[in-house]
Amino acid sequence: MAIILDGKALSARIRTGLKEQLELQMAKGQPQPFLTTMQVGDDLPSTVYIRAKQRASEELGIGFRHHKLAADISMDELRGQVSEINHNQSVHGLLVQSPLPQHLDEVAVQRMVAPEKDVDCFHPENVGLLYIGRPRFQPCTAAGVIEMLLNYGFDPSGKRVVVLGRSVIVGRPLSLMLMLKARGGDATVTVCHSRTHDLPSITRQADILVPAVGQAEMVRGDWVKEGVVVVDVGINRVPDPSAERGYRLVGDVAFDEVEPRAAAIAPVPGGVGPMTVAILMSNVMRAAGYNISH
Ligand SMILES: NC(=O)c1ccc[n+]([C@@H]2O[C@H](COP(=O)([O-])OP(=O)(O)OC[C@H]3O[C@@H](n4cnc5c(N)ncnc54)[C@H](OP(=O)(O)O)[C@@H]3O)[C@@H](O)[C@H]2O)c1
């Protein structure tokens, strides 16, 4: 039986630690950290993610405000809104939820956010700092994966790690962080994507496998070696008439096939998702000048 990497419980533990640090440092005169989120349009998963961020902020005692903007907002109008938050000294973190409507240039929007408030770590300046091994903020999902591995005693150092996916949000920062000469790094990293030939022959070599492709249950039982550690980042909706909402969430891994071969595995839901939120909270506190340990 594999160890279940319980992201929900671990995230709760990290957030409790953050809350203690927040109370301690606020008592010494630090300002209350404040997060502002922006959402353009009505994308339903985005609304769910923002609610989770709001809940986590409020639980910790981080100030929170959400701005919902019209789906047809122009680039100039959005720039105005972002600029206002950039100049608001009582807001420490600003996050513009993706995806954005087609008419908005996502990369240009990421560049509008003041780098010192960019708690998602998407601004090119922050990506550059990460690249040279001097991160200002942790990319939330990637850092969530690494914290999960470290907390369960699966240090990637010296291990062969296979990352499936090379997106700017998950696969790329994760593979970079895993190879950095730093805590949670020092791994030998292989990155696969949609052009990779014969994926199973590569995934079978992994000591640690991190699928982040958005393909429901793509990784099958015979894709992994005995004793592998699997951190499934994928979140996919599959139709399920027996479920209240008509669908259920599954990862990129066929859990029932892979779990018996694995030493440890993160489930979906309840794995990496909650970890992402915990790291975001620590980034907001960092942005407000807090020293964080977790
Ligand atoms: N748990 C969390 O907090 C969290 C956070 C973010 C995302 N996610 C989930 O993680 C998954 C990935 O998200 P993302 O934003 O990185 O997605 P994305 O931008 O669509 O990127 C997917 C990556 O997977 C690769 N890929 C797609 N199909 C493949 C296949 N059949 N074989 C091999 N590689 C394949 C793509 O290759 P190409 O580059 O060649 O196109 C791309 O690099 C999604 O399910 C998303 O919902 C979870």
How does this model look, in words?
Helix 1 packs parallel to helix 10 and helix 6 packs across helix 10. With 294 residues, the protein is α/β, with parallel strands linked by helices. Helices cover 38% and strands 17% of the residues. The strands form 3 sheets. Strands 1-11-8-7-5-6 form a 6-stranded parallel sheet. It folds into 2 domains: 83 residues, Rossmann fold, CATH 3.40.50.10860; 134 residues, Rossmann fold (3-Layer(aba) Sandwich). It contains 10 helices and 11 strands. The mean pLDDT is 97. The structure holds NADP nicotinamide-adenine-dinucleotide phosphate. NADP nicotinamide-adenine-dinucleotide phosphate binds next to helix 10.
Tell me roughly what share of residues is in helical segments. Answer: 25-40%
Characterize the overall form.
globular
CATH class bucket of the largest domain: Alpha Beta
**N to C succession of SSEs:** EHEHEHEHHHEHEHEEEEHEH
Strand order of the largest sheet: 1-11-8-7-5-6
Structural class: alpha/beta
Range of strand content? 15-25%
Name the ligand types.
NADP nicotinamide-adenine-dinucleotide phosphate
> Averaging pLDDT over every residue, what do you get?
97
Give the CATH topology of the largest domain.
Rossmann fold
* Beginning-to-end CA distance, first to last residue: 28 Å
The DSSP helix count reads: 10
What is the makeup of the main sheet? Answer: 6 strands, parallel
Radius of gyration: 19 Å
Which spans have pLDDT < 50 for at least 5 consecutive residues?
Answer: none
CATH architecture grouping of the largest domain: 3-Layer(aba) Sandwich
CATH superfamily of the largest domain: NAD(P)-binding Rossmann-like Domain
- The tally of domains stands at 2
Number of strands: 11
